[in-house]
Hints:
Layout: H1 2-7, E1 11-13, H2 16-24, H3 33-36, E2 41-43, H4 71-86, E3 96-100, H5 109-119, E4 125-129, H6 134-141, H7 143-146, E5 151-154, H8 159-168, E6 171-175, E7 180-184
Helix pairs in contact: 4-8
Amino acid sequence: MKTGIVESDLVLTVSPHYVKELTYGPDKGVELDGVLRTKPLEIGIVNGMDVYEWDPSTDKYTSVKYDATTVTEAKALNKERLQAEVGLPVDSSIPVIVFVGRLEEQKGSDILIAAIPEFVGENVQIIVLGTGKKKMEEELMQLEVKYPNIARGIAKFNVPLAHMMFAGSDFIIVPNSHLFITWRTC
């Protein structure tokens, strides 16, 4: 990685904040902060979903397509299919919270894993899909053991399941090392 950075003319990042984060110190720049400070850093492709690939009215990975006029009925059906797919009790009245992403401190996955026990007393289900640090993957895999009717942790890369999760969830949780965001999906 260091050689690639040294030999490059320009380094692209995903956001203005990430440029600052990478050059802040060894923990944020994964010990490449010094070499990164010697290069021109530019904003590149910003994180986000491809609006065509993830369009719920045409998404090839979801069984029930929907748009603004059919979202209520379709989301409930997609939720039930998601619950069945991951082995949770099927009940469209239970709010489903999902996370899809890398299991790294930088992405806030440690915050998410630590917060899951706080949800146990609530009437919710939590599904986490991701890969990354082995310790976090192991903690993720224990969710089903600890909370069999509430949580699922899937430590693998699975594009069709990620699409199902966004199509069938009520909330998407997006933690990172700086903040914790949750938003309703319909």
